[in-house]
């Protein structure tokens, strides 16, 4: 899985999304992350098809992720939801399929369906999203296969240190959604000073911080300049002092729902 991908949360179906994917692939991105609930899988699929043709790439050179929504959890419903996502995307398989949220009483049956999809070769890898340590422990008590990914809200105001340590211990890759805290950190003075030192943007500093923590990151943008900047992370590194300063911004503050207390 590429370390940096394009997120498409809150991007509506339409030409803007198609063009964003085309731009991202043209600029070297090879990972696209969507979900059934985003309501944009059709445009994501169209963007993928156009990007493959324009860049002379084959399907196996891209890494495509989608997720099963809470309303479609359970064994049979998950199988059907997977087929629906594939149909909208116009793909024969996904590289990664995730349980979107840990709905109590449903995620184990959902995981069993995902294990079957994996065993049947319909999906290359399976994982979870928004699972806390207790959810992971509970799931793995009865699972045949371990989740390869846990995609969670992760940014300098929510560093998730205990969860990061646990997933490292268990060999589960942590992945960050909302890595830029929906833009709320872009004016932060500490981050701005570090960015100025490296002649980079604040967004690039945050995303580099992700990578140096060993966390996959999927920033969202539809603007070609921002997409290019967000992927340009490999020609500088943060010192340990800078990493510690960013870690110290943690307030355990979320912009999304709390995985321990949600009602959808």
From TrEMBL:
The keyword Lyase does not apply. It comes from the Bacteria. One of its GO terms (molecular function) is oxidoreductase activity. Residues 7-251 form the NADP-dependent oxidoreductase domain. Keywords: Oxidoreductase. The active site is at 38 (proton donor). Coiled coil: none annotated. Substrate binds at residue 100. The keyword Oxidoreductase applies. The record marks 67 as: Lowers pKa of active site Tyr. Belongs to the aldo/keto reductase family. PANTHER family: 2,5-DIKETO-D-GLUCONIC ACID REDUCTASE (PTHR43827:SF1). This is Aldo/keto reductase. It comes from Paenibacillus agaridevorans.
């Amino acid at each position: 899985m590429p370390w940096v991908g394009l997120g498409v949360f809150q991007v509506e179906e339409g030409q803007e999304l198609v063009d964003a994917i085309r731009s991202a692939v043209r600029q070297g991105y090879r990972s696209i992350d969507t979900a059934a609930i985003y309501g944009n899988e059709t445009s994501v699929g169209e963007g993928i098809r156009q990007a493959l043709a324009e860049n002379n790439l084959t399907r196996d050179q891209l890494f495509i992720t989608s997720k099963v929504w809470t309303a479609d959890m359970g064994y049979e419903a998950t199988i059907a939801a997977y087929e629906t996502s594939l149909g909208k995307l116009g793909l024969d398989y996904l590289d990664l399929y995730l349980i979107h949220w840990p709905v109590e009483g449903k995620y184990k049956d959902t995981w069993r369906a995902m294990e079957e999809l994996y065993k049947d070769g319909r999906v290359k890898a399976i994982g979870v999203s928004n699972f806390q340590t207790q959810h992971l422990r509970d799931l793995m008590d009865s699972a045949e296969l371990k989740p390869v990914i846990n995609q969670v809200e992760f940014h300098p105001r929510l560093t998730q240190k205990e969860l990061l340590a646990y997933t490292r211990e268990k060999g589960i890759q942590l992945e960050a959604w909302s890595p830029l805290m929906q833009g709320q950190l872009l004016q932060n003075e500490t981050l701005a000073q570090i960015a100025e030192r490296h002649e980079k943007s604040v967004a690039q500093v945050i995303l580099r911080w992700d990578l140096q923590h060993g966390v996959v990151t999927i920033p969202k943008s539809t603007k070609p300049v921002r997409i290019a900047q967000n992927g340009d992370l490999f020609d500088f590194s943060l010192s340990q002092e800078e990493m510690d300063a960013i870690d110290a911004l943690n307030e355990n503050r979320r912009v999304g729902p709390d995985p321990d207390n949600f009602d959808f």
